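Figure 2 data, in text form.
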Amino acid sequence: MRKEPSARRAARSYVRAVIGAAGAVALCAVLTAPAVAAPTGARAQSATGAAKPAAQPDLRLPDGLAKTPPMGFNNWNSTHCRAEFDQDMVKGIADIFVERGLKDAGYEYVNLDDCWALPERDANGKLVPDPVRFPDGIKAVADYVHSKGLKIGIYTSAGTKTCNSAGFPGALGHEESDAMQFAEWGIDYLKYDNCNNQGVDAVERYTKMRDALKAASETTGRPIVYSICEWGQNKPWEWAEDVGHLWRTTGDISDNWSSMLGIMKQNLPLAEYAGPGHWNDPDMLEVGNGGMTDTEYRTHFSMWSIMAAPLLIGSDLRTADEATFEILENRDVIAVDQDPLGKQGAVVTSEDGRWVVAKEMADGSRAVALFNESNTPQRISTTADAVGLPAADGYRMRDLWQHQDYNTGGEISATVPAHGTVLYRLWPGDGAGSYPPAAEFGADAAPYVEAGGEAEVTTTFRNTGVTPAKNVTVGLDAPAGWQVETGSPTTAKKVGPGGTLTTTWQLTAPDDATTGRQEFPLSAGYASPSGKAVSLTSAGAAYVVTSPPAGTTYASDWEWLEAGNGWGPVERDASVGEQQAGDGGPLTIGGETFAKGLGVHAASDIGFYTGAECETFSARVGLDDESGNNGAVAFEVWADGAKVADSGVLTHDKAAQPLSADIGDAQTVRLVVTDGGDGVNYDHADWADAQFTC
């Protein structure tokens, strides 16, 4: 359940007051722990080197629920407490699950979040469904959902009130009664939140509801999946596998790249705690809600699946577009999430925004995610051995988004678009050569070019398979007004295993080219030895730029190349405020107000073109006063991929701190704000008086 920002800050303050500084430090240590080791494949290998299915683990909890991560729907991300959340919506989602095949793909639960009840209990202490939203009552809606062969979930809080500002009744002190009421209504899933908990110990609160649900189940025969939603504040991964079936590991997700990325990074190090019947939960899906690109949503879905996370759709499917359904219905990716072995994917490598995450599967195969965190396309590569597969002469490699099978000799690589993920699944085997050879095709870099100017792009086609690629052709499709020339070969009759076809292209921008990132689709085609045709696409790009102004000028008066912000847009000469552009207040740090600067929300990243013409960057930095009395951030300046200045961790009690950097001959400079290691991404941070000298 997502609280509004002020409520989130208040909740964070309260938890810190309860667990104390030592507990907060310990929590940070867990959430920022180094990437876990690559999964080992030794126990899944036979004497001949072929993979064999891994032994199935026993369920930790005796009830047999949630053997795989729960899949379904929750209304909160798309509706919050608005009027469109009602019984017609719930029934409509159930209908769509059946009609679109989502039920057959594994989606099972249709879950109600906050605001389904009246603000007060009845004279007998019972919960009362809102008669406007649910005029037929919850049981009637549950019966309808069950008639579709689906299950239904409901929400309450482990406190006296729920998290919504209207304060609907929570279950603290009413656990047995509420659990029985849920079971009698036919509820199959309970999401149990963390607001207004009156300081009662988390383990005590959540264990009491576990026992109440068990008692209700024994009486009614209605088992209920138990979702612990205490935001990871008390490290539930260490104690909750005997209490609930899943537990939130992070704060609430927002429908933007920085929020999703920060949550993913907090959840990845916790792989050892997940398994059948007890899952790490990095919060619900935002796919289709409009705050990210389709590329980012595919990353969201891919990474949640390889992390064996619950897949709870958070968009209103009644108005969803086909791109949203295409992502949510991808059964190849769903199979990774729902694999019965129940392993959460582990980080193999992470460097300069290039991530490799691998997941051991029940049949001995491996799912491998190549994830590009950065703002530009990058080549990401690993090997079969590194992800835990046994040695073999060849491997079948399936691209789970393209739904195509290839062969590879053990190299797993791709040119991955900015914020994108390529998701593969690999099996060792003698029959791998019957598939076309795997290949990668991409550009080396995104050049910078002024309007009317020229730039050079080099593309490389590379055969990573064990058989030749025949009749290779490559192309670069420039937009209208751009000129493209090449004196390099664009075709090859054969590119053998490990071979390449390299092409250099000269681009000329039109005189009226608009500044910013310009996409250039790349394409390649080839054939397998048997004649099967294969086509590849990739994203090329160039940045149209202008020379930086001479002298000392404010960064807020420049155009940036790209900007990512944790909550709403980056603001010029104002604090970040909330999600809408221009809703921030004055830039204020430690009571001092600044007229010029950039307002951001940790985590954030702003890139500028400096064109090797600037010498220094300077600013005064700190937490904006609107962040409240808690939180921590760190400010970093990066020049051409190297960090050249770091503020260290700054807290709210510090005045604006000077930060300067020698940026020398850098082509680009990035201004980065992190969460300061506290795992909390709710803090407003200011680059006050940010200036370049060029």
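Caption note: Residues 47 and 452 are 63 Å apart (CA to CA).
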